[in-house]
Amino acid sequence: MATMYETIMNLPLFKGLSHEQVSSFLEKTNLKFSKYSDREKIIDAGTNVNNIKCVISGQVRICHKIGTAEDIKLLELQQGHNVLGADRLFGMDTAYGFDAYAVGNVSTMEFSKEQYINLLNTGSIYLINYLNFLSYRAQIRYDIFNNYPDGSFAATCSRLIRAYCSKKSTDISLAFNIDAFALFCNMDSESLSKEIRRLEILGIIRQNPLGITILSKDEIVG
To answer: Cα–Cα distance between 61 and 99 in angstroms, integer?
Structure first.
């Protein structure tokens, strides 16, 4: 079982820290540890991001609501050793853009935005990690049109996954009303249904009662 030192050093915002730096962090930071049971809600979309919330063990189901009508949802499964909502700490929109639920037992560690700002001022490693984290989220927006420059269903799925999902996410699915998603893809419902069936025959997706499950992330994202 990983020690607390190893757990913290595996988090994206703490990569490269020494044991001494982790010790200092643990001593000087007011940490809150929480446990969640299966299906318990961890984050409400729309609430303000006032803390750095780290998933230190377990799996989390993230639900991104696409558009204002909330009739299209992108779901992903994230593993532990992750940070939730850190890209919304600053800027014009500082609210969580997703709901998060525990899958099985989940443990989190969190501390305030103010304490994180103090950390950013104490050592370059904290600042570099955060800049790398933000840079990836910013630069991926420019990359999402490269593999699928068209407006097809596969292109839309690729862009949504690359824009919203974590790089290591698994069990990705889309829940949607067929007419609403056809409009979102700039297609008619019949054409969209045919495209869904085509990709299902190829083994790339599978239909479910709520929409589709992505069977081959690589085939969609490219």
So the answer is: 8
Contact 8, 14 (CB under 8 A): yes
Closest CA to 147 of 74, 56, 49, 219: 219
Query: Which helix H or strand E contains 13, and what residues bound it?
Result: none
Instruction: Find out whether 69 and 180 touch, Cβ atoms under 8 Å.
Output: yes
Angle at 114 between CA 112 and CA 117, to 5 degrees: 115
Q: What whole-number distance in Å separates Cα of residue 127 and Cα of residue 39?
A: 34
For the chain, give the secondary structure using H, E and C.
CCCHHHHHHCCHHHCCCCHHHHHHHHHHCCCEEEEECCCCEEECCCCECCEEEEEEEEEEEEEEEECCCCCEEEEEEECCCEEECHHHCCCCCCECCEEEEEEEEEEEEEEEHHHHHHHHCCCHHHHHHHHHHHHHHHHHHHHCCCCCCCCCHHHHHHHHHHHHCCCCCEEEEEEECHHHHHHHCCCCHHHHHHHHHHHHHCCCEEEECCEEEECCHHHHHC
Helix axis angle for 189-201 and 153-164, nearest 10°, is 80
The pTM of the whole model exceeds 0.85: yes
Across the strands, what pairs with 111? 52
Over residues 89-125, the pLDDT tens digits come to 998 899 999 999 999 999 999 999 999 999 888 878 8
pLDDT of residue 221: 75
